[in-house]
Amino acid sequence: MNRGPPDPSQGVFDKGNNLPGFGSEQSNTPSGSDDSASSFYIYPNTVFGNSEKYFWKPVAEINAKSACFVDVLESHRNRVRDPQEASLFVVPLYRIEHIVDAGNASHLAAVIANLRDNLPNTRQYIDFGGASHVFVYLKSVSKGFMKQMMDQLYVDLYSFWAAPEPVEYWDNWRCPHRHLQISLETETGCKTIKDPSTREPSGQSAELQRALAGESSRHHQGVDAMVDDLAQRSRGRGIWECRGTSSTLTDTAAILAGTGRGKFVSYTFIDEGHQTLTCFMPKCASTVMKMMQKRQTGLDTWKDTAKGTRWQGLVHFPHDAAVGELRAVVDNPGWVKVAVVRDPVIRCLSGYLQKIVQLKNYGFIRWKAKRDATFEEFVDVLYSYPSIRRGNDHFLEQSAMCGHRAIHYNYIAHVETLHQDYKSLLQRLGLWESFGAWGWGADGHQAFLEAFEPSYNHPNQLESSAGDASVAAHYTMGMLEKVYEMYREDFERFGYSIDKWRRLVAQKNL
């Protein structure tokens, strides 16, 4: 691993090095209360598709034990209706039990395809790499169904799975630690429930309320145990913990092919003491993130952002790193892999305002006219000449850097909410109080990104930081569509929507 700008002549980083502060604060204790740590959101039926044939039928079609368990789960005190308030997310596979039982291969394939298309596009799934999700299924499952879930959603590696059977039921389960075995044993009271969809205002059926009056229902205890177990396992960096696997699905060959190695090595940074691999790409707050990385790894020069020094001390893989060296980090479930990404609409505008307007780097877009290029002309150049866009990393798709097409990142932070996103991450890693809570801002008395952080190449905030107002001032609908076409993969991979910007620009034109 290399310090400073990637240089194939430099040797491998000495793994025996101990820098100041390493490991001193690591903790599995999250910030906030236990209630917030175990609050959960249950996805609606539409996550499986819009056809009613895919929806759960909760009356005679299902097992009474399952019905009782579902009733308790869906009326649980820790369930929240707003996904923004949840720390855990339940994927209710029990609602498609009848589809699985029917054995219609095309229907089952459609359900899984819908799930694959819908889940990974949600911000709550993207931000934690699926690790905050638990798939709940309440009966035996065929190996064929499980294989599809493993192949398409990697449920045995990145997410939690709750089911009555022990993990040994399935072959090749890669992360047994993320399996929760639940009990569907029932007291007599729960067996009398005929229609759990008939509910009182409290959300529970009248018969279930009577069954739970003495708090003797094993279902209630079973649901509580599952929720508590999930909350415990998802504390701190434990939310990504995986025991029992020797490999992940990283496509190392894709990282090494073509320009993939260079785009991976140049923008990923290693903190061996805290076992983090971080991806900081151009025009994604990379300058301030390098400052954080240097501070986190114990460098006294972390506030030095001059052009020739802001890379100094940062640790990379060498350009000629062997496959085994790469996999020792990217395929190691003990390492937390983090990326900072940005809305492509804002990132494109930021690239124009800094590189073209502020710094007059016209050579970046091969501009030869004897006047400044307008933003519309800048977008047209990138759109009409993909080689120009792909030849400069400030304008390149984020998906093409840091091995995003080959590596499963555990945590995605977004520039638009970077203060809160990175605070949450560092709190999970036990590093916030040492590196994020103080020492930042022009006067050194602010928390990380609590206020604008001036640097050598960003002494003042760019206009693009104004967000909605700046987009409305610079974009037309046609320009938006070109940016969406150029960066569609980034929109989809990182959970951004073009619709918000379309509405904004349409309102401007009214």
UniProtKB/TrEMBL annotation:
Subcellular location(s) of the protein: Golgi apparatus membrane
Region (Disordered) location: 1-35
Membrane topology: Single-pass type II membrane protein
GO molecular function terms noted in the UniProt entry: sulfotransferase activity
Pfam families per record: Sulfotransfer_2
Polar residues bias locations: 24-35
Chief place where the protein resides: Golgi
GO annotation, cellular component aspect: Golgi membrane
Keywords of the record: Glycoprotein, Golgi apparatus, Membrane, Transferase, Transmembrane, Transmembrane helix
GO biological process: carbohydrate biosynthetic process
Superkingdom in the source lineage: Eukaryota
Family: Belongs to the sulfotransferase 2 family.
PANTHER family tied to this protein: CARBOHYDRATE SULFOTRANSFERASE
UniProt-recorded name of the protein: Uncharacterized protein
